[in-house]
Specification:
Blueprint lengths: L1 E7 L2 E7 L9 H17 L4 H13 L5 H17 L2 H10 L12
Antiparallel strand pairs: 1-2
Helix pairs in contact: 2-3
């Protein structure tokens, strides 16, 4: 099975190419896609500045040397800290939110 990933601006499209079965999706593939969609929904609930910074770093790293990629990651991390999201998130976490992968207070 060939998986093609295309990125255009903020949109990433994942295509599954299965010509041997006329691109039909079997049960295991459908279940894996459903799990991936559920996971994406969970990840989307994470703090957005940090999430988008990490996403950006993963895309930009491939064009950079290891040293440049680390500098880029550091710079993006600093912007996340400067946004106030980090301190705000730490306050929410200390009050019980976000533990064990959940964003509900326990």
């Amino acid at each position: 099975m060939l998986v093609v990933v295309e990125k255009e601006g903020p949109v990433t499209t994942i295509m599954i190419n299965r010509p041997e079965v006329r691109n039909a999706v079997d049960r295991p593939t459908a279940e894996a896609l459903a799990e991936a969609e559920a996971l994406a929904g969970q990840i989307a609930r994470f703090p957005q500045t940090c999430l988008l910074s990490d996403r950006r770093s993963t895309y930009e790293q491939w064009e950079l040397s290891i040293h440049a990629a680390l500098r880029n990651e550091f710079g993006l991390g600093l912007r996340t800290i400067e946004s106030g999201e980090t301190l705000e998130g730490a306050g929410r976490f200390s009050s019980g939110e976000g533990r064990h992968g959940t964003f509900n207070k326990e």
